[in-house]
Structure formats: C-alpha cells, structure tokens
Design brief:
- This protein is mainly α.
- It has two domains: 45 residues, Arc Repressor Mutant, subunit A, CATH 1.10.10.60; 133 residues, Tetracycline Repressor, domain 2 (Orthogonal Bundle), CATH 1.10.357.10.
- The longest helix has 27 residues.
- The protein starts with 21 loop residues before the first helix and ends in a 7-residue tail after the last helix.
- Keywords: DNA-binding, Transcription, Transcription regulation.
- Pfam families: TetR_C_24, TetR_N.
C-alpha cells in the first residue's frame, strides 16, 4: 500500500546541499580549526569555506562546539578502545606484549585520524568539551602507566624509570607524528608502526647475535 503526503503538509527536510553531508562539514571544520585555531574560527568562516550559507550548515549541526566534540571523539574513541583492550584481562598475553601491541595500534589510529588527533593535541581546556577531552587523555595516560607498571613487575622492563614517565614518553613519540607524517610520504603506516615499536622497546643500538 502506498501513501501520499497530506495536502498542505510541510515538505520533508532534505539532506542539504549535494556533496555536503555532516561528514564533509566535519572534515572542513577540522581543517579550518587546525589552520586558524578553534577559537578564531567562526561558523561564518566555515560557511565561506564550503560555499554554503550558515543556515545550510545548521541543517546538519547545532553549533561550532558540536563540531569540536565530534572531532575530538573521532580522535579519542579508537585509541580508548585500543587501550581498554590492552589493559583488560587478555589470557595468554603478558603485559609487555600488550604494551607493545597498544603502542603499535596507537600509531595506526593516529595515521588513520591524523587531522582530528592534531586538533586534539592542540586543545587547552578552554571549554567544557575541551576539558572533557583532556580528562579522557589523562585516563589514557593513567591506564598506559598501569600497563607499564605491570610489565615492570613481570621483569620485562627496567624499573629505573617511573611508569608514568614511560607512558608520557611513549605517547609523546607517537603523537610527534602529527608534525611531519604525510600519507603521501615514503613511509606506509605498517612500516611506521614497526619502526616506532622497535625503537621504543628495543632501542637503536646494534646488538651482537
């Protein structure tokens, strides 16, 4: 059975201008936030960038802050999942093995979400959304530090460096990729993940067989 719209009813809301769905608007917003800074970017700037009117953008999102929240979630969600999995009960895997795995996975997440991770690393807690993101980052640091401590307790890592410092240094190495990595460059994600994991855990010194 088919139905028709009642006479005089309001037209159904469309999906917006072709080519500019919510995902496309978010990508453009992240690029602008990274280029100009979040605080210095207005919805008018975003509308100009996309060649849309502000009402057309508000068809998809309610505010600039909503765009920031979605971007930071994009940067954090997969990393949070990776750290949660690594710090959970994983039968048959040592803490050291799980630590290596989560560092490697962190590289893969950053490469896949480089624009939003770049934005995440620039937030300073100037709004509720930013404070929530910083709190999530601290949680990740704490969980990774606990995993480092477990690996130390196993005897797999030296005990002369505080686990919290090791956590910061490991994430610092991974996060530094946002400053120079390019998908069009010489290093593919797998090579990059291998290199950082080897350097972080095995060092650069050549050891005799």
């Amino acid at each position: 059975m088919t139905t028709t719209e009642p006479t005089g009813s309001a037209p159904r809301r469309g999906r917006g201008r072709p080519g500019y769905d919510q995902a496309a608007i978010l990508r453009a917003a992240v690029e602008l936030f990274n280029r100009k800074g979040y605080d210095a970017t207005s919805m008018g700037d975003l509308a100009k960038e996309l060649g849309l009117t502000k009402p057309a953008i508000y068809h998809h999102v309610t505010s600039k802050e909503q765009l920031l929240s979605q971007a930071l979630d994009d940067a954090l969600d997969e990393l949070t999942a990776a750290v949660t999995a690594a710090t959970g009960d994983r039968a048959g895997q040592t803490a050291y093995e799980r630590l290596r795995e989560v560092v490697r996975r962190s590289v893969e997440v950053l490469v896949a979400h480089q624009p939003t991770v770049t934005l995440l690393l620039r937030v300073r807690g100037n709004s509720g959304v930013e404070l929530a993101a910083l709190e999530r980052r601290r949680w990740l640091d704490d969980r990774l530090a606990a995993l480092v401590a477990d690996a130390v307790a196993e005897g797999a890592l030296r005990d002369t460096v505080p686990p919290a410092l090791v956590s910061r240094l490991l994430f610092g190495m991974v996060n530094s990729l946002v400053e120079w990595y390019s998908a069009d460059g010489a290093y593919d994600p797998a090579m990059l993940a291998d290199a950082i994991t080897v350097i972080a855990f095995d060092g650069l010194a050549k050891h005799a067989a």
